[in-house]
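@here heads up, posting the sequence + SMILES for the NAP run so it's all in one place. Ping me if the SMILES looks off, I pulled it from an old spreadsheet.
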Amino acid sequence: MNKKILILGHGYVGDYLYNRLKYLLNYDVTIVKREFLDYTDSSKVERWLTEKRDHFNYIINCSGFTGRPNVDEGEKKPELCYELNTFTPLRISTLCKAYGIDYIHISSGCIYTGYEKQFTEEDAPNFGLFSKVSSTYSKSKHAYELGCDYGLIIRVRMPFCDQLHDRSYLTKILKYNNLINQVNSKTYVPQLLDFIEHILKGGYNCREKDIVNFVHPGALATDKIIKIMKRFNLENPDWEWVQFEDLNCTANRSNCVMSVEKLKQKYEFDIMDEEVAIEAALTNILSDE
Ligand SMILES: NC(=O)c1ccc[n+]([C@@H]2O[C@H](COP(=O)([O-])OP(=O)(O)OC[C@H]3O[C@@H](n4cnc5c(N)ncnc54)[C@H](OP(=O)(O)O)[C@@H]3O)[C@@H](O)[C@H]2O)c1
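bot reply: prediction finished. Complex structure tokens:
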């Protein structure tokens, strides 16, 4: 079947995905910007999707409230955060279900915290809706998972890529003067795109509800990342180690390692080790300069 894909969200992940699907794979792909369609305008979205229902057999939702400059913004604008991360995607997945359109939702693994285990897709989030200390952003992501009954949710964390894009984890680390040394799972965006291609080509079902963690095995702490960056001659002379409490953030942050067993077993995806992925990204960043 010819894949006709609609991407929602013209941001960091959405743009990367559009370029891969359109220009490298020659898919019939459309991306919709906010100027054309505000996803929170539910009646307009419903009218537009109803009209276009036969034009798309996949919707990949890369939109959401991500917070600028960071997720603290969710504490200032909780209604908007819930609207964009919970209610809007719930309405879109419901329309996909009604129209038989496969639905892929890019979400986040920031609904867990702690190091007592590698969190699987079956673990109840401990930094989500029911946590007393979680951020509004994390709660809104968990609320979507609880409310939806359709489509594949791909949980990513701390995405990084082959450019010094301002949304990339590697760029953020390079620019921040104050660093916190925590181990966290991360997502290499080019491999996330490989995975989406694998899903599209492999005929995986994106109608029944499912959740998959898309992160790399071998999660590294910040100090290990710094060491690798220094090997690639990328460093910030003002780097300083601090405690999270010193940063005066409004919202707490999730720090955790996520399991990749389901990604490997059920989705048969050959996922890179995090260190290999970081080195690949840095090699490509430098070769682009
Ligand atoms: N980046 C991260 O660190 C990170 C980490 C874990 C998970 N994720 C998740 O991955 C997904 C993609 O993230 P990203 O980094 O690509 O985010 P992003 O760069 O902030 O992109 C989000 C996009 O959503 C669009 N959008 C927001 N509200 C809209 C509305 N009402 N109507 C139409 N478009 C709207 C934004 O449009 P405008 O450009 O017009 O604002 C933006 O293009 C999100 O669900 C995010 O939570 C991201």
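MO: The two ends are 40 Å apart (CA to CA).
MO: One more: The first strand starts at residue 4 and ends at 8.
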